[in-house]
Specification:
elongated, three-stranded antiparallel β-sheet, mainly alpha
Length: 203
């Protein structure tokens, strides 16, 4: 049932948000049945493309990673996605009172909003099977824009706030998302310096 929401958010998002709010799934179940599954798409596709296909940087140059390096980086990316979604959900719940919503001890609505808003980014992971940098950047940019729209559209419905408050609330959450993204990039640099950096091989 939870995975059905992934497609409904693209065809009739308003109705899907209302359904998500009615279900009020516990965060643990939502994570196990939805986030853990969809968040794995990108890392798995990235592993396949970097270890087996290689990235096409120019017409005559293909870059690959060793299978071990690709696996470790994919696992770290997967963990970063899981932490990022939870952190975004935590921030949505933490700032709820500021924008007139109800803060929940269980954070069910906030985690659901963060998880389902990230659905376009999860599904964009399939694009990594076609390892061309400009194409992947374009797909993820479109996915990020639609994810931002889903959050703006879902905030009034899921969090029970006036539509007028959704713009500021969504803006604050997008700022938090950018901070999380920067933090993961900084974390990547630290991990690379500790020996988890990419190991390139001849294509």
């Amino acid at each position: 049932m939870l995975l059905q929401h992934a497609f409904g958010l693209f065809t009739h998002p308003d109705d899907e948000w209302k359904s998500i709010k009615r279900e009020h799934e516990p965060p643990r179940r939502l994570y196990v049945a939805y986030v853990l599954v969809l968040a794995a798409i990108g890392p798995i596709c990235a592993y396949i493309s970097t270890a087996h296909f290689g990235w096409t940087v120019s017409a005559d140059r293909v870059i690959k990673l060793s299978p071990e390096s690709a696996m470790s980086l994919s696992i770290l990316t997967y963990l970063a996605i899981l932490v990022g979604v939870f952190a975004l959900g935590y921030a949505i719940n933490w700032m709820a009172k500021t924008y007139g919503a109800r803060e929940e001890p269980s954070r069910s609505n906030a985690i659901a909003l963060a998880s389902y808003s990230c659905t376009p980014l999860f599904l964009a992971g399939f694009a990594l099977l076609y390892p061309v940098p400009w194409f992947n950047a374009l797909i993820f940019l479109v996915a990020a824009c639609y994810g931002a729209y889903l959050m703006y559209d879902g905030l009034p419905i899921v969090m029970g706030i006036p539509k007028s408050q959704a713009v500021m609330y969504a803006g604050a959450m997008l700022t938090v998302a950018l901070v999380i993204l920067v933090a993961t990039r900084a974390g990547s640099v630290l991990l690379w310096s500790m020996g988890f950096g990419p190991e390139f091989v001849d294509g």
